[in-house]
Specification:
Elements lengths: L2 E3 H6 L1 H9 L4 E5 L2 E6 L3 H19 L24 H9 L1
Parallel strand pairs: 1-2
Antiparallel strand pairs: 2-3
C-alpha cells in the first residue's frame, strides 16, 4: 500500500480524495510513522463492485440496463393527527 506524508495529504487533499474515490488506499504517515489509513468506504466498494458486475452482465447480454434517469425523490404524505392512513392517501392523490 503506498504511503503519503500528512503534510502532502493536507496540501493535495483533493487529488488524494479523487484517487480514493477510484478505489485507491493510502497509508498516512507523520514524521515517517504510520498514523492512519485512507481508503474508500466499504459501502462504496460494494456499490462499485455491483456496478462493475452489472456492466459485465450487460456486455454479455445477460441483462439490460435502465436507460432513464433515477427516480425522483418521494414526496412525504401529510397525515392529520388521528386520521386513517387510507384517508390521507386518498386526500393526497387529489
Amino acid at each position: 500500500m503506498p504511503s503519503v506524508a500528512a503534510k502532502e495529504l493536507k496540501n493535495r487533499l483533493g487529488h488524494f480524495l479523487r484517487l480514493v474515490r477510484r478505489g485507491a488506499c493510502f497509508l498516512v504517515t507523520d514524521h515517517g510513522r504510520p498514523v492512519a489509513q485512507l481508503a474508500p468506504l466499504a459501502e462504496q466498494r460494494a456499490h462499485d463492485a455491483l456496478e462493475d458486475a452489472l456492466q459485465e452482465a450487460a456486455a454479455r447480454g445477460a441483462v439490460t440496463l435502465a436507460k432513464r434517469r433515477k427516480l425522483s425523490p418521494v414526496r412525504p404524505v401529510r397525515v392529520r393527527k388521528g386520521a386513517e392512513l387510507s384517508t390521507a392517501v386518498i386526500e393526497d392523490r387529489r
